[in-house]
Amino acid sequence: MAERTLTITVNADWQGALRVAAREAFGATAYRGETLNFETPGAFFGKLTERRWALLRLLQGTEEMSERELARRAARDVKRVHEDVSALADLGLVERTERGGIVCPFADIHVDMHLREAV
Known about the structure:
The protein is an alpha/beta fold. The protein has helices at residues 14-27, 41-47, 50-59, 67-74, 78-91, and strands at 4-10, 34-38, 95-96, 102-103, 106-112.
């Protein structure tokens, strides 16, 4: 399989976006990447904080890493890193391995967000 990619979108019409994604997926003959949607910019920024982005950056392109090692590299408290890793795992941005380590499975993460005038 090719390297995994993720596109993060902000779209209040998540049901419509899901329908479009399903149509595209059923017509695809090859891997087209994955999508994570947030309904509002506030939801996006509430879940993906600056510190969580920093952890993702440290994990991308590396082998499995323990939370303790990740905390050491990030120069942060292990308990706080554990909390952030749990939030990232809940979103599917990191995965836990059978040996208890963590990995970021995505080689590329793209954020697609538009700011438009209120209607």
